[in-house]
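Example A, followed by Example B.
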Amino acid sequence: MRILIAEDEQDLNRILKRRLEAAGYSVDNVFDGAEAMELLSYTSYDAVILDIMMPKADGLQVLSSLRKAGKNTPVLFLTARDSISDRVTGLDMGANDYLVKPFSFDELLARLRVLLRTSFGQASNLLTVGDLVLDPGARAVRRGNANIDLSAKEYALLEYLMRNAGRVLSRETIEDHIWNYDYEGGTNVVDVYISYLRKKIDTKGLPRLIHTVRGAGYVIREEGR
């Protein structure tokens, strides 16, 4: 999942980026509202973490611009402004959640999981395709009774495929949601990581779950569906 952080407190911004990346997210970070609006105008994010009090444009202006553009990207306000009126204003303008500083990073992760679950129309945190189960809270994957160890990028790719189960995803769409602007790898990175996943998920003797759709991309689904 690809996340945008807009936070002008530089130390906090960098800590959030580092910890979210350690949790498996792809993260872009900016330090003012104008930069946030620019990135949001041409990049598709799965969630946005916004400070309210930022230079050049505050978080409310960023949110207003995002919603006027017709984008339903989940937005979590992360701010020191903790009055009821501030919360009501943010939520009424289209924010999805509001977390007051100081905060627990574990709570932030839990709230992000809820935002993503709601955004993808899923009732449970557990993602399931056939006998493959991914638990975002525990960052655990198993197929049948076997636990599967994945690297951070393999996990992120599998989570994105499973959140879009049954939907064919182009290589460009996958790359946009799994890798951030700092990535400097090869052009076939998606194919490489799909191959890694197949070796761990679609092992010999098991029904294939990850499928190639020629000329279109990849999809995860049970065979015959």
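Example B, a separate protein, is given below in the same form.
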Amino acid sequence: MPYPEYLVAPMRQELTALGVRECRTAADVDATVASPGVVMMIVNSVCGCAAGKARPGIGMALQHAHKPDVVATVFAGADVDATDRARQYFTGVAPSSPSIALLRDGKLVYMIERRDIESRSAEAIADQLTLAFDRFCAAPAGA
């Protein structure tokens, strides 16, 4: 049974206030992942590490010069079908929430799993993401 909307709404808003696109259905996920460029798909969660580490770290990272072309989110435990569909794109990675994936052409190129979030501060997560943004989202030299 999904979490009640009144419970997750403030946690959704933390990301949507940053301009993050919500994917509430499997079709939303498929359409978003099909977007050109690099897509960052965030699996949001009600847990403390999402609140104190992942969401603040994402907010800091999105201030970086290089960032994904599209930033989207599903909410584990609320957007059940959308979350299941997003996880189908995370090939070779066990389901975890929160988590943050970078995809290009529908293929996973980078992943931060819950175990990587639990043991880091929001600042360290932002640093990890900005390094990934520099690697996967920056235009190649001479382009």
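On Example B: The helical segments are 5-16, 26-33, 48-61, 80-89, 114-118, 122-136.
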